[in-house]
Amino acid sequence: MATSPPGSSAGSGQQGAHRGAPHPSPRHPRLDPLADRYAARTHGMKSSEIRALFSVVSRPEVVSLAGGMPAVTALPLDAVGSMIGDLVSGMGAQTLQYGSGQGDPRLRERICDVMALEGIHDASASEVVVTVGSQQGLDLVTRVFVDPGDVILAEAPSYVGALGVFQSAEARVRHVAMDDDGLIPEALEEALLDCRAAGDRVKFLYTVPNFHNPAGVTLTEPRREAIIALAEKYDLLVIEDNPYGLLGFEHEPLRALRARNSERVIYLGSFSKTFSPGLRVGWVLAPLAVREKLVLATEAQVLCPPSLTQYAVARYLDTQPWREQIKIFTELYRERRDACLESLEALMPAGTTWTRPDGGFYVWLKLPHGLDAKLMQPRAVNALVAYVPGIGFYADGSGQEYMRLSYCYPEPDQIREGVRRLARVIEAELDLHSTFDAVDTGTFRAVRPDADGRFSGSGTIVGPANSNAYEDGR
Amino acid sequence: MATSPPGSSAGSGQQGAHRGAPHPSPRHPRLDPLADRYAARTHGMKSSEIRALFSVVSRPEVVSLAGGMPAVTALPLDAVGSMIGDLVSGMGAQTLQYGSGQGDPRLRERICDVMALEGIHDASASEVVVTVGSQQGLDLVTRVFVDPGDVILAEAPSYVGALGVFQSAEARVRHVAMDDDGLIPEALEEALLDCRAAGDRVKFLYTVPNFHNPAGVTLTEPRREAIIALAEKYDLLVIEDNPYGLLGFEHEPLRALRARNSERVIYLGSFSKTFSPGLRVGWVLAPLAVREKLVLATEAQVLCPPSLTQYAVARYLDTQPWREQIKIFTELYRERRDACLESLEALMPAGTTWTRPDGGFYVWLKLPHGLDAKLMQPRAVNALVAYVPGIGFYADGSGQEYMRLSYCYPEPDQIREGVRRLARVIEAELDLHSTFDAVDTGTFRAVRPDADGRFSGSGTIVGPANSNAYEDGR
Ligand SMILES: Cc1ncc(COP(=O)(O)O)c(C=O)c1O
Ligand SMILES: Cc1ncc(COP(=O)(O)O)c(C=O)c1O
Description:
Two copies of one chain form a homodimer. Chain A is of the alpha/beta class.
């Protein structure tokens, strides 16, 4: 059975053709008899237009630089298999039974050990809530804090899955500019002042400080300090989403934002990228009062996370060489990152720019001026290469000139072949558009304040109704 | 490590003392600095007042008739363990990887086979969405249909976990009376007319037709027809929640509501009671247009259900004698039900009445007039027996005289001992209250229209603000 990229909704491909409609309608021609009774929040839920392409993308001849799937086959599958088998045979009364809503206490202890690697030494297991992936963690935090119409600050671009959560909470998203050094503190302060002036309630800042999805950049040390200082100054709650923090290629992990402030930072973690996403084990670290509400929210949502997968992770951390395994993963991703960057360097036409990640899964690529990654996508798939168009990562419909390339899953040779195909598609596109004279030299780096000292492209607050978010693109 | 009843939040027991406050506050005396920024939906989220008792209840000397935990140790744990171990060793690339939001196609096929046992023969795998337990299924359906203030019809009493979902959706719940034959169609019609007259929008009826939690009763065949007819007449959407349908002691499963109408009935299923709750695998069967929205909602909530647990269930259905296993479970539960009913019969003081389930996990007991199950609870725990007070199963704070007894988990001897202790507590309570003269002969059966032909106790619509729901009690 083919594995499908997350969110690709394999098996429902026949719905693809109807995805553009505001109320996706079933295949049979009758109108949806329930059309008038859906909740308001569903109106903003749009299925990805690239989903229809996924049946194509999963053909073996296509090189997919689209999905964010970790290289799980690099795990010692036999050892993990017998470990999990033993858990069921020997501890079935626990692993097959309901557990607590907050999650297995033993696992929560071990999660504190994991967080210590990023400088969080004061976390206690009682402040941890185990979630069904960090996706559920983000959904719970959003449920607990956000009423319809509330403002959330989020990097431009932002993780598509987060925008999906915010949209289904009917929040308004205000993007904050970032550059190669991550979120720009001055842009954050500007956003906070704007919101204050407009009387808008900012519920929190959502940020991915390490090896950003999709931008591939990492928040520098001085900026971490600056952002914490702004959180203090403006009484700002920060949601630190950190699934990739331990996957750095060049240096030790930077100290988490949460390590610098335990009251204003809620931390989201995940075992999806350091162990296995198929187990769906993530967590939230939050002050006790918030933790309390998160537990109530998760009980109403799923009763409790799966016991088996929690025991599997706890046992894995207890008995397997997980730190060494993370090294194996990072070596593998570093090699793939190198293959990706080297071939981009060698093959991309002038005017194409991209970020240079030193960890994680993603390169963020900007097309030459005038090109549109989404319009180009069918031609790329025709040329047997796939990527995720940038617009999915913006709540305001911008980002047309960007795309995300994931180097985590394909082998280096495939990556090189994929980039080669992509370069040809871009060249053909440039020919087609006859835009040779309009090559733009702006890079992602070049996010600079305008003459008034303001950061362009991050000023509008985008409500759920006119939002263009929720493209696939983990 | 002790297994804790679902929702018992083991490991956070130290919070218990503060549970009564509208905003549960952390132990340290400082005020919650975030208190002013929670979402409106959190105000109705109340933690269970009986949670604090669970640390007591889980002491081995206490007979707990409180939890709804299935007897998972009756499974062939070695066979299931090696089956799951093999899945990871042999298919790690799939079982440890992200999957599709809708769920594994192979599992969805097998789910259709399971539903055929209850007369649903027209379901297709494309209409099935796999969920993290049927709890998540109910949460997704509620998210897709319910705006704050919308009315949901639900049996009086109703499954506490459903009331928790409705409360966190800020819905208003209107209870509909039931008796030993299940939901009363005339009471349903009355509720629909009342809502129509009041201009209230009824989003759906939530019903548990088989071996009801907590009432232990089953909707009869003629009432099934009557309710489907009312759904047609009043354009009513019905949510059929059916985790216990295959656990009947006396006869073949009754035909599901969904088998009678595929357009107005959304069906929720679960493997929690027929296989294992620790895997958290449930599903929703819904018309394609709804299914489409459910997939978007689940992607925003958890990305996808765990792959490993889905593969485990599919492989279990493919390779293990699951129908025979269900027989083993029902034999075991029947024996426990008998132990429970026989000792109730032998030991309960006059004026105590109870339902006689012919399947599932629960007996619904009514105390002699004047007694309050919740007030009595600390004394019961002192006497080393635990149950769930009835008020948790009503959104309107009624049900004081009821309690739920679960016979699914303890051995028959323990059940007999538990009932013996409970009988003594009730007798002592009667002494204490000197209410020997006020013994009430009303039973649960005796829900009858009043002189005006109206059903008492089901007329008020209860909003989230004054709701008393979300007691523990699965
Ligand atoms: C930034 C970010 N946050 C959260 C997630 C969700 O991860 P999971 O739910 O698998 O833990 C992802 C997955 O790609 C991600 O990139
Ligand atoms: C009526 C009812 N619905 C739903 C559930 C939730 O079950 P699951 O474990 O599938 O989430 C329960 C659990 O006890 C139940 O009794």
